[in-house]
Amino acid sequence: MEHSIFIHILSMLVIAIVAIALLRRIGLPAILAYLLTGVVSGPSGFHWFTQLQMQSVAELGVVLLMFTLGLEFSVPRLWAMRRTVFGLGSAQMIVTALVAGGIAMLVGQNLVAAVVIGSAIALSSTAIVLKLMNEQGWLRRRHGELSVSVLLFQDLAVVPLLILMPLLANDGTQMSFNAIAWGLLSGILAFLGLMSFGKWILPRIFDEVARSRSNELFVLSTLVVALVTGAFTQWLGLSMALGAFIAGMLLGESQYRRQLEADIRPFRDLLMGLFFISIGMLLDFNLVMQYWWQVLLILISVVLAKIVIVYGLLKLVGEKAKIALSTAISLGQVGEFSFVLLALAVNYQLLENEVSTVLVAVAVISMSIAPWLIRHSVDVAQKLTGGNNKPQDEPVEIRLPVSDDNDLVLILGYGRVGQTIARFLKTEAVPYMVMDLDPTRVTEARAAGENIYFGDACRMALLKKMGIRQASLVVVTFCEPRQSEECLAVARKLAPEVKILVRTRDDSNLHELKEAGATQVIPESLEGSLMLVSQVLFKCGVPLARIIKRLESERRNHYQYLHGFFSGTETDFTLDLLHAVSLANGASAVGKTVADIPWQTLDVELRAVRRRGEEIDPPPADWILRRNDILMLVGKPRSIEKAEEYLLQG
């Protein structure tokens, strides 16, 4: 029996892996792959598991989903966008919920079911919209800012909905206003109490945890805090997910936020995946096929209604037609938090299984078409509104001044290295422009007066706008080799004559980058070694001119002397080693010339030969090897062993 369960779990994971790989290739989100896995593994498929069996894991997935939302929740950001968030966001949420809930009541649903249905339909997918808009470079456009504002309010609105769900479950047909008000009040009091606790106690706890320098303890403490706060709110009669959200907010304001995000991500992704698999198990294909025309009708009605409502609200506040329509199209789908509400509604018996199945099917299909709608939202809005071809709401990444200054330096990437270069250029009054893909960094740098623009440096149109053809120098500061190669290829195609410097961590891709068109590749770790060498030589009295000559020679020879080192106790078998082979009297190589040895076949390099205390570097091809010569070989450990055996034994 246990063996069978293990096989079923393994099979489910394999299906999830294959589904994610296939759907990602066609541009669909991973959520749909998890839902498909749930359909195949659940009652509609192989019936390995039921939704009830997955319920505990699914609830833990919801807890971590809400914890992550709280961790990323930024009060300063919300306050900065308060007008659009609480104005447009609340209007969209209320109007959409009222319209959807009213229609649900007209077709025979009770008040409780109508509240759940209206709330679920009113939500849009934060993950899909933000990811696709970031890929398109639209987050700084007006319609991107409006979309983010609505999504922020929707995420915030999930909190009172989580408070409301258990209260509706008490007596669905006779809701008491006093009970709901008391529930909301207790939720607010719990929120304030936990926030106070978190402000004074949690920092001290995590200070002690951080001092232990144990990632395991850090992650474990985070999970315990999330679950304990969830258990506390559940004890108060509220949702466990609400406590997790508050825990996320508590830790999101701390100095450990970034570390928590990195440590918790694997658990979050895994449990969120299991949660969406459990949602997929709710889908009854027989029921979906039975009500297929209702599913399509509701799908079309939901998408069109959400588009019309958002478009109407934006037009009422004076937004341009194109911006209003592109924003509305981007928010036309149903969101991932709708699955959370529908799952809780089924668990609390607020919705019938048939209704929940139809709504889940509608949500799945709407999320499937969401990538296409979002990518083409601007084009569709352009055609329907009949505006001119030039965008009226161009973001800073498109509205880039083309410089005629031939001394311009173009810096691609504004991290630690990019900012350091910019500071020195500014000191020397050398004009420069910067492009970076981090919106927060760009916003802060522009506020400080930096000549920086948001955009993807691998996009040809943006590099043209930056004036790459007029630039005297391009500096690529990315860490990722693949991103550097892609950017380098585009830059070289646009400006064949421009000098391009590429920064890398090491020289593992030096030849590839050179062949791709880099004028010079700067391996950070190796250049650091050269700088230390130059300081040592200078302190030892070596003339500066000779030091510079040696450094330039090392760069021209592709850092030859920075490879091949004597191995220590722990050998890294991926690195080239320096090894000395002494030719004894009967060695096979004695009497042969350097050219007689098949160095390429042995896959090693003869760095130098030492004879009677003198080093010949490199030895000529006709050099005859003699007894007691010491050969300095560079290569991988196994190649060194093979070469030593050949030199000594033949």
TrEMBL record:
One protein family per Pfam: TrkA_N
Domain RCK N-terminal: 406-523
Family per record: Belongs to the monovalent cation:proton antiporter 2 (CPA2) transporter (TC 2.A.37) family.
Mode of membrane association: Multi-pass membrane protein
Taxonomic superkingdom: Bacteria
NCBIfam families with a match to the protein in the record: 2a37 (TIGR00932)
Transmembrane segment boundaries: 6-23, 30-50, 56-73, 85-105, 111-134, 146-168, 180-202, 214-232, 268-285, 291-314, 323-349, 355-374
Subcellular location: Membrane
PROSITE patterns, alphabetized: RCK_C, RCK_N
Name of this chain's protein: Potassium transporter
Primary subcellular site in the record, as a coarse category: membrane
Disulfide bond is among the record's keywords: no
